[in-house]
Amino acid sequence: MSRIKNAFDHKKAFIGFLTAGDPTLDKTEEFVMEMVDAGAGLIELGIPFTDPIADGPVIQEANIRALEAGCTTDKIFDMVASLRKKTDVPIVFLGYLNTMFVYGYEKFCKRCQECGVDGLIVPDLPYEEKGELVPIAKAHGVDVITMIAPTSKQRIEMLAKEATGFIYVVSSMGVTGARSEIKTDLAEIVEVIRGVTDTPVAIGFGINTKEQVAKYSAVADGAIVGSAIVKIIAQYGENAGKKLHEYVEEMVSGLQKIMNM
C-alpha cells in the first residue's frame, strides 16, 4: 500500500500545508515533525515561487520570505530526504509547472522518487496538458493529484476517473485563504466523484477551524488547511513549533469526532 493510500485507510486524514523554507528549511523540517506528532496524516510542502497564482496574500508572503532566505528546489529535496529518516508520513509537493519545467520533468520526478516525495499538486496544470508531466511522474511512482473546483461541474466525472493518490476538491472560487463561510455544495461534488472512483477525496481552500474540519471531513475523506498554518509561522517565526503542534492537534480533534460517531 502506498503512503498516500495508507493515510486514508479506514480513517480520515488531516492534511497540513506549509511553505518550504519559511522561515528556514531547518525550521520547516522541525515544523513538519511537530505537525506529524500532532496527528497530521499527510503533509503538503509548497515550493516557493515568484508568482503563485492560486495563492492569497498569506501564502504569497511566505513564498517571498522563503525565497529571500535562499530556499531552492534542490535544498527542499535534501530536506525531504532528511525528513524521510524520521517519518513515513506522505509528503506531497505543491508547486507551479514552471518550476518543474525549468528543473526538467524527468530530473524532478526522479528526485521525488529518490527523496520520498509521494505526489505533486500543480494548480496551473490544465487537464488537457497533463500528458507532458503525468506519464513521467507515474513512471517514478509519483501521483499527480487531481484538483476539482466548483467550476468543474460538467467535467467532474472525467477528472475523477483518472485520478490517483487523492482528489483535492477546491471548496470555493478564488485564491487560498481562511474563510468564515463556504457556500459551495461540496456534498454534491463529492457524490459525483464517489460515483466513478474510490480514490480518496480531501477538501481544501478556506478551512481553518475545528468545526469546519468536522463538517467537511464528514462529507469527504479528509480536510486540508494551509493559510491558517502559514499565518502561525508568519506570526511566531522560528518559535512557531509549539503553536503549530497545538493548532494541528485541535484541527485533528475535528476528525476524531467524526470517526467516533
UniProtKB/TrEMBL annotation:
- Show the InterPro entries listed in the entry: Aldolase_TIM, RibuloseP-bd_barrel, Trp_synthase_alpha_AS, Trp_synthase_suA
Q: Which GO terms describe its molecular function?
A: tryptophan synthase activity
Is the NAD keyword given for this protein?
no
To which pathway does this protein belong? Amino-acid biosynthesis; L-tryptophan biosynthesis; L-tryptophan from chorismate: step 5/5
Q: Which reaction does it catalyse?
A: (1S,2R)-1-C-(indol-3-yl)glycerol 3-phosphate + L-serine = D-glyceraldehyde 3-phosphate + L-tryptophan + H2O
Its EC number(s): 4.2.1.20
Q: What are the protein's UniProt keywords?
A: Amino-acid biosynthesis, Aromatic amino acid biosynthesis, Lyase, Tryptophan biosynthesis
Active site, UniProt feature: E44 (proton acceptor), D55 (proton acceptor)
Q: HAMAP family from the xrefs?
A: Trp_synth_alpha
Family per UniProt? Belongs to the TrpA family.
Subunit structure, per the record? Tetramer of two alpha and two beta chains.
Q: What is this protein called?
A: Tryptophan synthase alpha chain
